[in-house]
Design goal:
0% strand; mainly alpha; single chain
Amino acid sequence: MMFAISHPAIPPEAQIGLSLRVLCGFGIDEIAEAFLTNKEVINKRLFRAKEKIRVAGVSLDLPGPADIETRLSSVLTTIYLLFNEGYYSASDNRSLRKDLCFEAIRLGQMLIENEPTNGPEANALLALMCFHASRLDARLDANGELVLYEEQDTRLWNSDLVSKGGYFLNCAASGARLSKYHLEAGIAYWNTQKEDTEQKWQNILQLYNLLLQVDYSPMAALNRIYALSKIKGKPEAIREAERLDLRKNRFYYTLLGDLYSEVDNEKARQHLTEALALARTPAERTALQKKIDELP
């Protein structure tokens, strides 16, 4: 049905929004979060898409083989956002929803099991999801609180999913186009490497640099800053982060709070307090309050 909704008569962002709303059961807030925008924009986008379907008499039928490829990009993005909502969930007051993650993986596997959709980008997306899913069991502690990457128990990382991710990433190596899924899968691969080496962070930083050229997004730019801090140190990372000026973004303030820790603890406290005010789940609020309490 995702291919049916991804009709060329509807703008791509509306195709994805409708799929998330109708097929994946996302609320308007969740769709707005996925697109880094607000509810008003999403409501207007969905209304116009529905009006287009009604007025133009668009028939949302399953496309023929010739139309599959042109619609694949929207379907991949929908699956990608479905996985992200599970991995960084703010719905149902939960910070992690494994059911959404593994449903996205199931849909990705369906794509590669079907010859017309078994292309490099589909394999790269599946690799990305497998690498991320390999760390799901380590992201929450026994009390349901978020566990930061550096504090995760690597014994809980799923080596089978890491191996599957490597297999699908290898399958994605054919073709001439380097997609964002290839680059994000590469970053996710290095994050499954347990040793905290300079080589690891150099590779992650280089992949983020390429990703921002291929498909710029504020969140990718923000995530790059963490890798930069590992290579260049906190002061340079702080300067880069503040240039982004992503106000109203809780992850922005969380990162700045971490970077200012032990550099300027009062500023760290201010930023973490801003993040706490924007937090969307109890687990997030607990983790942020813990950070604040641990500051000197």
